Amino acid sequence: MKVSAVVVSHGHGVELERSLPALVTQVDGTVVIANLPGSADRVPDGVRVLENPRPLSLAANVNLGIAATSGEYVLNVNPDAIAEPGAVAALVAFADLHPRCGIAGPQMRWPDGSWQPSRRRFPTVGGTVMRRTPLRRLRPPYQTQREHYSLDDRPTEPAPADWMLGAFLLMRRAMLDEIGGWDAGYRHYCEDIDLCYRGLRAGWERWYVPEAIVTHDYAAVIDRRFLSRHTLWHARGMARFVRKHPERLLAL
Q1: Fewest beta carbons within 10 Å, which of 5, 59, 63, 68?
Q2: How high is the mean pLDDT of the chain?
Q3: Is 78 left (phi over 0), alpha (psi -120 to 50) or beta?
Q4: DSSP bridge partners of 115
């Protein structure tokens, strides 16, 4: 099996009805992890559903999917990510030609068709404070942190990436085996940054492949509110990332 897709659904049955039909024809097998009852009641034929007895973190669920599949590549897909025809093939073709490519990510677009900044730089202390506190109102990140979001660098050919949004990532199983999969200690945020950073530390490349196009209805909850359970989860995630990789504290 070449490509195994893993989709974690936490009550996203409606989203799956749109995204799965576009996905299953592009991969060799698909596993949906139902993290809540009723999260995957209606799925296309051939899709395997694993029902969790209790909710787990996103990363823990992705690891369940990795363990339940056997593809040379594992494709992590959010329920709200819809792959355009040929998207997976473009990612695989690139990875096949670059044996040290551990992670390949597509060009993401908003539902209206506009470009979405999914290829980003690793976070810095100062940049994180500016993005995740009320200082955001004084210095809008999309205006003052253009380098972080790569807003002025929109390559039309494959380009290296620090990290990419985890909503649609093709991962080489050999890399996952080497670094130990996703870190299940993250509650909900920063696990994709950690994955890419650990891949970097192990010598694996991360590539943005703009030929592959995916529509992503990115909620960006933590960009709109400062005090919510999501912002607390993000703060905990960033704290875990810094504890694991204290050298990042030098990246002010």
Answers
A1: 68
A2: 90
A3: beta
A4: 109
Average pLDDT over residues 101-116: 97
Tens digit of each residue's pLDDT (9 = 90 or more) over 127-181: 665 665 555 666 676 677 788 889 899 999 999 999 999 999 999 999 999 999 9
Residues in contact with 48: Cβ distance below 8 Å, sequence separation at least 6, in sequence order: 29, 30, 31, 32, 68
Tokens encoding 248: 């990042």
> Tens of pLDDT along 53-72?
999 999 999 999 999 999 99
Q: Model-level pTM? A: 0.91
Structure tokens, 250:
């030098």
85-120: burial string, b at 16+ Cβ within 10 Å, e else: eebbebbbebbeeeeebbbbbbbbbeeeeeebbbbb
- What is the identity of the amino acid at 135? L
pLDDT higher than threshold 60 for residue 124: yes
CA distance 165 to 186: 15
Say if residue 225 is exposed, middle or buried (CB neighbours under 10 Å; 0-12, 13-18, 19+). exposed
Percent of the chain with pLDDT over 90: 74
200 burial type by CB count under 10 A (0-12 exposed, 13-18 middle, 19+ buried):
middle
